[in-house]
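Human: We require from you a standard protein entry with sequence in single-letter code and fold as tokens, and nothing else.

Assistant:
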Amino acid sequence: MRFLTTILIILSLAAATSAKAQENTGNEDRAPETLGFVEWVVMKDTRLRLKARLDTGAKTSSLHAVNVEEFTRNEERWVSFEIPLGDHEDQPTGGEFTHDNVVIVLERPVRRTVLIKRKGAPSQRRYVVDLEFCIAGTMHTTQFSLTDRGKFSYPVLLGRRFMRDDNILVDSSDSFIAGKECEYSTLEELAEEQQARLVR
């Protein structure tokens, strides 16, 4: 039986943040940035690198997540969810670990829920959370719906809300054209960081 290394990363966020504080300001004065229809994103704190498709056909961004479970913390709605890295294998590795051995576990406050209508299938209720991530060397915050994207090519989809709020244009003819990179961890570094947290 193969040993499964579970990396548990629980990030505490402020229980209440104003909508104004969550908005990006000054973007209307900034020149638009052009990105390819596929780019690398790195999730903040975890430094988890994933491929993201920039999709003008979607309003809300989405993130690959499984075992999504709601719970209550300080009388507020939260969700825990897992990102199994074996479903997409985007994280660099030195060979000691394989993607199938690593699962990232996160917890976030629930921003809202959305009802997704699906062709030929029942409608699906999804949780939406705020997540910070880096793309093209710059940090951003946007809303992500949590859904199982294991059968899709890209674990992250960035929608129009992100592009509008952060003044992003998409070159549909090219990919990975970002001029700057974001720092990310290897599988081994993620495991070492988690072990250090457990020792503290």
Observations:
- The helical segments are 19-22, 160-165, 187-199.
- Confidence is low (pLDDT under 50) at residues 1-26.
- The first helix runs from residue 19 to 22.
